[in-house]
């Protein structure tokens, strides 16, 4: 049984947290993610959950408390954004290295400076190498579903997860959301599964010991291999989620790709605008499709290469810049994934929407004309273009 | 035998008390010598030893655990009865 409600992204994530009923939530508020833990804290005060809520003095402390609680066998969640995620940075690697199943509800927001509270993906991208699963959401529905899914993934794989929404665009925009029954969520998740338990006094353990030249590399290769292998397990878990919860998600989502000659590749909320633009262009007879990347970490290289094999020209939409002179993160990952492929489309990066700059259908249609021209010119000229910027 | 990456415990989470398996006795340049005839069993050495290397059984000092003693000399220094001498470690 599902219930249909109107919820913002933040409300949807808080609702998922209520249904997950974590043992511990340690959090510090930050715009635009504040509401997630604020709403959740009222569930705590109203006795609707059994959670110990730890209001900390910073995000560094919040994620540190999460690490401690997760090592002690608790089901643990938190929420943050932007500078908050940046302040968690060093502990994110510790959680990843200790293989602790923690879930962060992360709202994408630009990193300072200049200070800005609106959406781009620079915060999440800056933590992409921390050994976490990263799932992008297009709307409140996906934010809700993927928060529940992330808890399952983390507890099955012993890898922490962050589920992201786009600041204000999803976090504060109200949409129709189908909500599961509380017991469906509990049944789906089952008992918390842990790699180890610090509080098992009959079997004392050491968590986070020193490993120098003789062991560090074995531990990191173990972690790297596990992430690599996790891709097939993520697909299995996602299929199971689709079956049990009646959804139709895939690690990368193809739209009108079967006969497409050109395509857009994007993360998060912009996928919605791109899908609408694909429909408009299709009506004019243009053979264009969309590839939405749901999982950014781990990176589903083979699926992306396979999806692009018949594409002539591909426009990557990046809501972040690497400041390396080589464009955005998604562009660089897709580009390197294609290097060993025998059929490579012409690839061009379109960096857009930094600090919440709006992108509309006309902007995307001009990208379409640009990628067509770029392809006709055999990829000559600049491969990175900043769009919707005053020149 | 050191473990390879497939054998090593997840995230290197190990059981407690593994420091005992690591012998630090060969770090010593000086060695404590216990003179039981002078010892009054005050257990100051046991209290101060930073490496749990004073062997005590049934409340009695029995000698020194040379597998772990690093030869710091604290036991000799704190002994009020001159019951522990420090001598050069010789092979």
TrEMBL record, chain A:
Q: Which UniProt keywords apply?
A: Oxidoreductase, Pyruvate
Q: What SUPFAM superfamilies would the database entry show?
A: Thiamin diphosphate-binding fold (THDP-binding), TK C-terminal domain-like
Is the keyword Oxidoreductase in the record?
yes
Ranges for domain Pyruvate:ferredoxin oxidoreductase core come to 260-364
Q: Which residues form a coiled coil?
A: none
InterPro entries, A to Z: PFOR_II (IPR033412), Pyruvate:ferred/Flavod_OxRd (IPR050722), Pyrv_Fd/Flavodoxin_OxRdtase_N (IPR002880), THDP-binding (IPR029061), Transketo_C/PFOR_II (IPR009014)
Has keyword Oxidoreductase? yes
An example GO BP is: response to oxidative stress
GO terms (molecular function) for this protein are: oxidoreductase activity, acting on the aldehyde or oxo group of donors
Extract the PANTHER family matched here: PYRUVATE-FLAVODOXIN OXIDOREDUCTASE-RELATED
Protein name (Swiss-Prot/TrEMBL): Pyruvate ferredoxin oxidoreductase
From TrEMBL, chain B:
Q: Which GO terms describe its molecular function?
A: 4 iron, 4 sulfur cluster binding; metal ion binding; oxidoreductase activity, acting on the aldehyde or oxo group of donors, iron-sulfur protein as acceptor
Per its UniProt entry, which superkingdom is the organism in?
Bacteria
The record, for InterPro entries, names: 4Fe4S_Fe-S-bd (IPR017896), 4Fe4S_Fe_S_CS (IPR017900), PorD_KorD (IPR011898)
Q: Which keywords are on file for this protein? A: 4Fe-4S, Iron, Iron-sulfur, Metal-binding, Pyruvate, Repeat
Instruction: Tell me yes or no: is rRNA-binding among this UniProt entry's keywords.
Output: no
One Pfam family name from the record? Answer: Fer4_21
Could you tell me which residue ranges the 4Fe-4S ferredoxin-type domain spans? 30-59, 60-89
Identify the cofactor(s).
[4Fe-4S] cluster
Database matches in PANTHER family: PYRUVATE SYNTHASE SUBUNIT PORD (PTHR43724:SF1)
This one is known as Pyruvate ferredoxin/flavodoxin oxidoreductase, delta subunit
What organism is this sequence from?
candidate division TA06 bacterium 34_109
